[in-house]
Design goal:
single chain; mainly beta; Jelly Rolls; TIM Barrel; Immunoglobulin-like; eleven-stranded mixed beta sheet; five-stranded mixed beta sheet; 30 strands; elongated; binds zinc ion; Polymerase/histidinol phosphatase N-terminal domain-containing protein; 5'-3' RNA exonuclease activity; Pol/His_phosphatase_N; 5'-3' DNA exonuclease activity; signal
Length: 463
């Protein structure tokens, strides 16, 4: 009896002591400059009966310390069950409870066990980085649990050209808009689809269903952001899928994560390969390249040349263009500028993803640029992404029709460089080619100052 009473006290006492109260744990440390880009896990024991965990981070000025958290299910790379959110360098404080969480984090029960806070320095000044974490555990009962609300998968069943943006951020990472603001703006700009790509978190994907409407398709994604080795977009992933970023090129892990994206029916796209930190992973397993990120600039020009080299080696990579918008600001990357226009069998997740894979895709600076680019030979006609058989002795007829684009120059490119030109007034443009003179053909439309206005994926010519 005494033994039983002691056990009863042991179980009940901590709860009685702390019910309705908070307990605060402080952890601190120092990171030398050599510690840049090294993962540091700070373990915290969470007792039974906690309804909310809250973390406040502080560190010495001049440094950047990114932050995320893993639950008791574990934190080893690839452990999706353990992942509970990431805010990178965008927040200094976050919370998680049963029914809600800070943006970037996954709401749900705060289970007892060992949690791990991940801190990851992406800038460390010469005298180092002193950091402190204040962890507040609030005792109490979880009253209600967050319900996942995935985006609808179909908006309509009509085949056609659909315009969309494949790269954007909200408050769920370092963007400044709410999800609702982003959706409203996409509808105002007459986009047909958007792909949600927050840095290293799938938290926004858990609630896109709340913003479903009859005009706009929302597709899940994630920007896999390795500050040290470059960024890539996992687009079309399932709501529950989380793509880990914690590996270096020499670990040879990226293929495994691209496989996960493919298993969900999605695509892996290399982002802004020449922006700031270069893209250091092997490009071979990736499906496409974001060759146009925001306003056209010299980094995009380099990305275009890099992509063209893949084409010259017969390697099919889909070229995409996207805004990478973070805020609604005339000086920032604007939603829908540029946009990726894809021919799809329906305005649906599967339709858009399969259209992108086929490569019947062009990129446009804005909504008012439409184009149609085809090549025909021997009674057959092919569109971008397709292969046209061009037997010797036949003639290839290439034609391009565009909406009115004032003062633009249209150029026809192949593996031999520019092979034909036209002014925008001459429309539709038509050229003839001999079989065997080009392995692929594609179009660029530029303003007089060289700024890109539109760009197609290639039509492949098989001799
Ligand atoms: Zn990026
Ligand atoms: Zn981005």
């Amino acid at each position: 009896m005494i033994k039983g009473f002691a056990l009863f006290c042991f179980l009940l006492f901590p709860f009685l002591l702390f019910a309705g109260q908070d307990t605060v744990i402080v952890r601190s440390g120092h990171i030398d400059p050599q510690g840049i880009f090294k993962l540091v896990y700070v373990p915290v024991e969470v007792p039974v009966g906690i309804k909310e965990i809250r973390i406040r981070e502080s560190y010495t000025y001049g440094n950047v310390l990114n932050m995320g958290i893993y639950g008791p299910e574990g934190y080893e790379p690839g452990n999706t069950a353990g992942f509970r959110g990431w805010s990178g360098g965008a927040k200094n404080e976050f919370y998680i409870n049963g029914s809600s969480a800070s943006t970037g984090y996954i709401p749900g029960k705060v289970k007892a066990g060992t949690w791990n806070i991940l801190i990851y320095p992406s800038n460390v000044i010469a005298k180092g980085l002193d950091w402190k974490l204040e962890i507040t555990l609030s005792f109490g009962k979880t009253e209600s649990l967050f319900q996942v609300s995935p985006a609808q998968k179909v908006v309509n069943h009509l085949p056609g050209w659909y315009r969309g943006d494949l790269h954007m951020h909200t408050l769920h990472s370092d963007g400044k808009r709410t999800q609702q603001e982003l959706v409203n703006e996409a509808i105002d700009k007459k986009l047909d689809y958007i792909i949600s790509t927050e840095h290293n978190t799938n938290s926004a994907n858990q609630s896109w269903g709340k913003y479903d409407n009859d005009h706009l398709l929302i597709i899940n994604g994630e920007e896999v952001t390795t500050t040290a080795y470059g960024h890539w977009n996992a687009i079309g992933i399932n709501t529950g899928t989380y793509i880990d970023w914690r590996y270096a090129p020499e670990d040879h892990q990226v293929e495994k994560y691209i496989d996960l994206v493919h298993q969900d029916g999605g695509l892996a796209i290399i982002n802004h390969p020449f922006y700031a930190n270069l893209f250091l992973f092997d490009a071979t397993p990736f499906d496409g390249i974001e060759i146009w990120n925001g306003s056209w600039d010299k980094d995009d020009e380099r990305a275009l040349h890099w992509w063209d080299e893949f084409l010259q080696h017969g390697k099919k990579k889909i070229a995409i263009g996207a805004s990478d918008t973070h805020k609604n600001n005339p000086y920032d990357n604007n939603l829908g500028q540029p946009q990726t226009v894809v021919y799809a069998g329906s305005l649906s997740r599967n339709g858009i993803l399969s259209g992108l894979k086929k490569g019947n895709v062009y990129l446009a600076a804005s909504n008012n640029i439409n184009l149609s680019f085809t090549a025909s030979c021997n009674g057959k006609k092919s569109k971008t992404g397709e292969v046209l058989n061009t037997p010797a002795g036949q003639t290839i007829t290439v034609s391009l029709t565009t909406s009115f684009i004032p003062d633009a120059e249209l150029t026809l490119h192949s593996d031999q460089g520019i092979i034909a030109r036209a002014a925008s007034s001459e429309k539709p443009a038509q050229w003839t080619l001999k079989p065997g003179t080009a392995r692929y053909i594609r179009i660029e439309i530029r303003a007089k100052n060289g700024t890109m206005l539109a760009l197609t994926n290639p039509i492949w010519l098989n001799n």
